[in-house]
Amino acid sequence: MSLSDEDLNTFRVSGVIIKRGFVPQDLVQRATTLVNDWYRNDMDRRLLVSYTQRTFAPDLGGHPDLLALFNKSGVADLVRDLLGDFLPVKTTQIQIRLPEAESGGSQPEKGMHVDGVSCPHLDPTELRTFSLLVGVVLSDISDPAGGALRYVPGGHLTMAEWFRTEWSLGITDQVPPQVDAMTGTPLLGKPGDVLLMHHLVPHAVGRNFATTPRIMAYFRVSHPDHANRRLDALRDPWLDYPALSTRFGRPVQ
Amino acid sequence: MSHPFADAKTVALGLIRPIVEGRTVILTGSAARSALMASFIAEAGALPTRVDLRVSLPEARSRFAAYDRLIEHPTQEIRQLVDSLDPAGTALVYAGSFTSARQFCGRQIIGNRSIKSMEAERKDVQRELLALPGAIVSLVDGLGLHCGAPTVVQGVPDRGVAMATSHTYLIPDGASRGAIDELVTKLSQDCSRVVVSPFNAGLPCTFYGIVTETTVIDFGPVEALVSWDPQDWRIHAPGILRPAMLDRSMAESARYVVHNVVRLLRDRVGYVGAFGVDGTVTLAGYIIHEVNPRVCAGFALLDQLCPAIAPFAAFDLVLREVPDASGPLKDSLERAAAMIASNTAFLCRLWENPAYPPPTIGSDVDTWMRQVRAAAAGNHVPLTELKEA
């Protein structure tokens, strides 16, 4: 399985591609069973803030049934079309937005941000960036107010410009004001849908006013050289995407 | 329960009646030929009368600009006609949703929009006001394009607003510097600035709706029939087709984005009334290209879908003219919108062939849709076929 020219062009322009119904249902079923069991039986609601900042079901991060969503579904092949080589994916982040009726409003919202930069719970001089965020939908997300991830198409170019011209390491602002004011596009979908999102696309997540939890599995994928050039990769959106650069020439910035 | 369209119309009539009842209402400009609006005005207890400004320009932007010029500066002949129809000088005037003029031949215009709302239709203003994608570039500096990828350029006329893709061009991949310079020269005739944005491949899609003081109501997505002329690079939008074939997740996500941008428009310029939002459904979601704060040509399809009720322009008129109309209209309009959204009838509207037939019962709808797209595109390239960089 590989990305089409339309996929690649959309990624170049928007920094995002959504592949509907991409992950086979048997893999989705095994993963959702695992996460749902943890949610029902093992979740400690006192740790909701920590789960939200890091991951839900932290003990399941390396479980083969979750990693299979990336490694055995064909998703890894799609990622290769974008990044070329990448470091092995060894852990899954599970993000759940609890229904408000269950959380009582205690689950923190996340404003517009890019992952790994100026995280409120981290030292602002520390970068925990990567190249590509892969999300697999594990619950029905039909309501934008149901805790859907919201992203800004094309925001990777805006952010790279901001990082180049205005931002410096240690600044606590996560995004420029015009991005902060955006509500973004909600990711709605069904279990098995896949999101491929450039690491510089700003995104946010809000409260879940639906009646069921919203569940996503995320994989953070890094180009092999990313760790040695995190700052440069913030300022040049195509540094980690040699395959795209080769195909299109140097994409617009 | 009564029919929601009938409810909405009854409410609208009740709201506008105190303003127009017993008076002459002159329909002019783009509204002069609207039989539906004349009927609505008459039902509200007014005497509708028409003043045709006799503008027959085929291109929308030129036509609307000519209407506005004549409304602001009527000829002696028009003045005499208006005075003969309304010797007391007490008539009201309805000149359509586009105009921001306040008076016509000394008579008050109703249902016009504010100058601020008119300004908000400018593509450069929208970029900043509504955070739409694209960079504003001064033509004096040249376009500065590398042309490694298809690029959309929208001219921003120095006077008036661009309408119906009047200034929209798609520069193809690998275009020569000379050809781009030619386009710059052409745009420079009436534009100092352009908006430059990447081309979003996908399904062109438009949402029509109504924004009130308290809510945004949309009437569901329609496919915008958009084509590209490879000779002069101009984009054309010769019609629309409904229903747009979108999966539910994509449609709901797009609706959310549309409602947000329209709320922003209302909150920042105080606009209430009809709107049209143009964009493209891409693999990354719905990308908005522009917002038109007025009744757009596509509203004719809604009127076609709900015949003999009220023109949708009537709700635009009432919301603009009657303070606090939102509360009374909201529920019935929302129910009407839900009814339209659930109507799966296939219909199209080609501006140059409004009577293009719908598919016959039992016919192959896919074939019909292909035929409509081909008829709309003519000898141009349908935008849906431009998928690659």
Radius of gyration of chain A: 17 Å
Number of helices of chain B: 12
CATH architecture classification of chain A: Sandwich
pLDDT averaged over residues of chain B: 90
CATH fold-type name of chain A: Jelly Rolls
The separation of the N and C termini of chain A measures 28 Å
Q: What is the string of helix and strand elements of chain A?
A: HEHHHHEHEEEHHEEEEHH
| End-to-end CA span of chain B | 52 Å
Oligomer: heterodimer
Radius of gyration of chain B: 21 Å
Task: Give the CA-based shape of chain A.
Answer: globular
Uncertain regions of chain A: pLDDT < 50 for 5+ in a row?
none
**If classified by CATH, what would the architecture of the largest domain in chain B be?**
2-Layer Sandwich
Assign a percent range to the helix content of chain B: 25-40%
Decide which structural class fits the backbone of chain A. Answer: alpha+beta
Summarize, please:
The complex is a heterodimer of chains A (253) and B (389). With 253 residues, chain A is of the alpha+beta class. Chain A is 32% helix and 16% strand.
Overview of the structural elements:
The complex is a heterodimer of chains A (253) and B (389). With 253 residues, chain A is of the alpha+beta class. Chain A has one domain (5-248): Jelly Rolls, CATH 2.60.120. Chain A is built from ten helices and nine strands. Chain A has helices at 5-14, 25-41, 48-53, 64-71, 75-83, 100-103, 155-165, 177-180, 230-235, 242-248, and strands at residues 16-19, 93-97, 110-113, 132-137, 149-151, 185-186, 194-198, 203-205, 214-221. Chain A has a five-stranded antiparallel sheet with strand order 1-7-4-9-2. Chain A has a four-stranded antiparallel sheet with strand order 3-8-5-6, with no helix packed on it. In chain A, α2 runs antiparallel to α4 (64-71). The longest helix of chain A has 17 residues, at 25-41. Chain A is globular. Chain A starts with a helix and ends in a 5-residue tail after the last helix. The relative contact order of chain A is 0.22. With 389 residues, chain B is an alpha+beta fold. Chain B folds into three domains: 4-112; 128-198, Dna Ligase, domain 1 (2-Layer Sandwich); 203-385, 2-Layer Sandwich (D-amino Acid Aminotransferase, Chain A, domain 1). Chain B is 37% helix and 25% strand. Chain B contains twelve helices and 16 strands. In chain B, strands 10, 11, 12, 13, 14, 15 and 16 form a seven-stranded antiparallel sheet that branches. In chain B, strands 2-1-3-5-4 form a five-stranded mixed sheet, sandwiched between helices. Chain B is globular and about 65 Å long. Chain B starts with a helix and ends in a 7-residue tail after the last strand. The mean pLDDT of chain B is 90. Classes of the chains: A alpha+beta (253), B alpha+beta (389).
